[in-house]
């Protein structure tokens, strides 16, 4: 069976050794995913041809069973193109010595949070993160930086790109998303457009990894490039091509949209695999997300099949999953 699930993220713990102001996972109860569920989700990703399996948190390195899980992946990862999801481990890099000694032979990429130190949002020493990425590279593990742009570092984009490029470390960017708790560090629409244009210029120069955000469609495509064929060509994939399983078993559309579609432990006579398949195919929340043509206001937009807006922003704006995303750039771009 082909599920067309391109990305599956496992939040194996919601414990973290940082408390970043922009985090979408702040203030929740502390819980670790059982090891048996981690194993089942790994095999699920292989069986159903998931393109990318992300191991995240919280801080994934705080899960006591992470070394055992990574060793299991290394020993059981199938070596066929049809059933070999790209494995990505996300970390803030703060447990530097611990991360550098893990068995990462089954991991394709290590995603390291990156920022300019002492801006009051994410207290990470950029020099230590550079050294960690180099240590991993020496072990044959590809690491890359992931930076979130917010009010306190928006003027340091060029500096972050230069640090990454000088040290030959790939870098990707995202813009701080509204969580309902981080208004003081959110960019204005004008600031976001300026940041997006700067990032797109770096992308064209090959200095950063491709920028992925639904809002970018407005700035990225000309009218001639837009295919009006009723098919989804990009934008928000939450519940459409991707989902996340939390440490408590809840299945949500994406890490930013923390709305429950189901729970892999509420399975009755089914096993976890059957339960997740059922949630993915039939959960009412996912059904709504897959009907972009019914999104408020967005449904009449020429960028609909390339954007779809951010559904997390939409629900904060309107309390409706298919409501209008007030963070839309179209009107002032």
Helix content: 25-40%
Q: What is the beta-strand fraction?
A: 5-15%
Question: Can you write the helix and strand succession as a string?
Answer: EHEHEHEHEHEHHEEEHHH
Average pLDDT figure: 90
Instruction: Tell me which oligomeric state these chains represent.
Output: single chain
* Topology, number of strands: 9
Count of separate DSSP helical elements: 10
Rg, Å, rounded: 19 Å
Q: Which of globular, elongated, flat, extended, rod-shaped describes the shape?
A: globular
Structural class computed from helices and strand pairing = alpha/beta
Structural write-up:
With 333 residues, the chain is α/β, with parallel strands linked by helices. Helices cover 29% and strands 13% of the residues. It has 10 helices and 9 strands. A 9-stranded mixed beta sheet has the order 6-5-4-3-2-1-7-8-9. The longest helix has 16 residues. It is globular. The chain starts with 6 loop residues before the first strand and ends in a 15-residue tail after the last helix. The mean pLDDT is 90.
């Amino acid at each position: 069976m082909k599920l067309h699930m391109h990305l599956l993220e496992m939040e194996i713990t919601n414990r973290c050794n940082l408390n970043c102001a922009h985090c979408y996972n702040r203030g929740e109860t502390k819980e670790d995913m059982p090891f048996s569920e981690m194993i089942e989700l790994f095999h699920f990703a292989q069986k159903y041809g998931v393109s990318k399996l992300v191991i995240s948190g919280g801080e994934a390195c705080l899960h006591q069973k992470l070394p055992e899980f990574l060793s299991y992946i290394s020993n059981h990862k199938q070596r066929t193109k049809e059933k070999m999801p790209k494995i990505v481990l996300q970390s803030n890099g703060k447990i530097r010595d611990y991360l550098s000694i893990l068995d990462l032979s089954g991991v394709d990429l290590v995603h390291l949070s990156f920022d300019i130190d002492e801006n009051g949002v994410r207290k990470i020493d950029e020099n230590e993160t550079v050294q960690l990425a180099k240590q991993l590279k020496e072990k044959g593990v590809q690491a890359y930086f992931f930076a979130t742009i917010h009010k306190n570092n928006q003027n340091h984009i060029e500096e972050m790109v230069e640090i990454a490029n000088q040290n030959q470390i790939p870098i990707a960017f995202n813009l701080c998303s509204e969580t309902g708790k981080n208004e003081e560090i959110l960019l204005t629409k004008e600031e976001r457009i300026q940041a997006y244009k700067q990032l797109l210029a770096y992308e064209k120069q090959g200095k950063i990894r491709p920028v992925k955000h639904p809002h970018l469609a407005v700035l990225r495509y000309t009218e001639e490039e837009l295919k009006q064929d009723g098919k989804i060509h990009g934008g928000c994939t939450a519940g459409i091509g991707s989902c996340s399983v939390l440490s408590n078993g809840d299945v949500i559309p994406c890490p930013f949209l923390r709305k429950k579609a189901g729970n892999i432990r509420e399975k009755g006579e089914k096993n976890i695999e059957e339960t997740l398949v059922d949630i993915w195919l039939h959960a009412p929340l996912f059904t709504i997300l897959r009907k972009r043509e019914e999104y408020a206001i967005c449904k009449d937009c020429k960028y609909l099949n390339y954007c779809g807006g951010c559904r997390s922003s939409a629900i904060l704006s309107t309390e409706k999953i298919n409501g209008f995303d007030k963070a839309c750039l179209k009107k002032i771009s």
